[in-house]
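Sanity check

After download, print the first record. It should look like this:
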Amino acid sequence: MKWSTSKRVFDIGKPLVMGILNVTPDSFSDGGDYASVDAAVKRAEEMVGESVDIIDVGGESTRPGSVRISEGEEIDRVVPVIEAVVARVDVPISIDTSKASVARAAVAAGAEIINDISGLRWDADIATVAAETGAGLVLMHSRGRFETMHSEPAVDDIVGEVSRDLRRAVEDAAAHGVKASQIALDIGIGFGKTAEQNLELLAKLDKLVDEFAGYTMVVGTSRKSFMGKIMGGVSAGDRLSGSLATMAIAVWNGVKIVRVHDVRETVDAVRTVTAIREQI
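Expected structure tokens:
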């Protein structure tokens, strides 16, 4: 399987680890930790030392209860970090945004992947940016608007809902000129799903991987609240074991990119699961 960005073509024979670099003051797990350029660059360099494959820079928190920020504020947060990181490390940079203007500014600063949690529902011009620049485009399933995506009523058939919306997102991207080779798909764990539906999606991931066999599949469960419930209400920083378990399940079921906070531990876990799976 191959996945193309504006700077390279990934030959995804083995799963890749995408490290999360939130440059926000209010993200649910690491808000404020990397808000300065120096702190963000230091963390990026640490992730490179931990064998990260992609670094995903985000400037707007999407945790429950978060408040949307302006395009200008988001650009001011992410562009200096991307420029500084690109100058220091030779690892692909992704921009986590649902705004086309932010995506365009980030790609101009050196990002080569756009990660859109809305799957083009909130700003379809993100697809135009991807088409014009050749950037890789991650299309994630979510429900509702920014303000309501964590409070949407549950749907009866979550696997069917995810499947239908990902197909819609792929069609929208294609209509804007994005090539299939640029597109990756994310099932959107934690966005508009109940805790039970998150677990169902992980359990049935192989079906979605098979259905979208022509696309790279991405999953991000890292430190999310549904694991906290399973683990007795532990805080986000104490959910490493649950994060590793869910990532192992995702990789076993055919996912090719996992998006995580804890890079070193996840790299080791992914390598182990991959080595076992190769014996099938």
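If your output differs, re-run the checksum step. Summary of this record's structure: DSSP finds ten helices and ten strands in the chain.
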